[in-house]
Amino acid sequence: MKLTPFTIIYLAGLVSMSVIRGWYSVKGARKRVKNRESKGLDALLMGISSLGFILPLTYIFSSWIDFADYGLPPVMGWFGAVVFISGHLLLWKAHIDLGTGWRKLIEITEGHELVTDGVFKHLRHPIYSAHLIWGLGQALLFANWLAGWSLLIAGIPLLCYRIPLEERMMLAEFGEDYRSYMESTGSLLPRIKRAR
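Above: the chain sequence. Below: its structure as C-alpha cells.
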C-alpha cells in the first residue's frame, strides 16, 4: 500500500464523495420517474468511466501499474491536492443546491424543478465540471499515466454523450425557461459577461 499525503487526500475525497452521492441518492429515490433517457450506451460509458476510480485504487493498494509511473516534483502533487479538493467542494455544493433533484441516471422526475441558483447560477453542469476538476487534480496527485489520468480520459466520453442528451431533455421539459438559462449560463465553465 502506498501511504503518502496524496493517497490519503485521494482516499478521503473518494470516501467523502461516496457519502455525498449515497446521501443524495437516498433522498431523491422516492421521486417517481417521469422520463428516462439512460440507454445501454450510457451504462457502458459509466462503466468505462469507473476506471477513473478503480485504477487509482489499484495504484494505491498494489504495485500492478507501477510501470506507468513518471516523475513530478512534489509541489505539483500539492497543487494537485488543491485542485482535487476544489473539485470536491464544487461537487458537494452542486449536490446541496440540487437537493433531491440529483439523479444518477438521465431522468426527469415528477415535480422536477429547474435549479438556476447557487452554483447553477454560473454553470449548467457543475457536477460534470467538478468531475473534470477532480480528474485534473487526480492527474497531479498521482504521477502515474494510468492512475493519474484515468478519470479524465475515461470520463470525457461520458460527458460528451450525456451533456447534449440532458440539454435536450431539459429543453423538452422546461422550454423557453431552459433556453433562456442556456443563453445566460455556461455549460462547464462560467460564461464571461461582456462589459457594456
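The chain has a mean pLDDT of 91.
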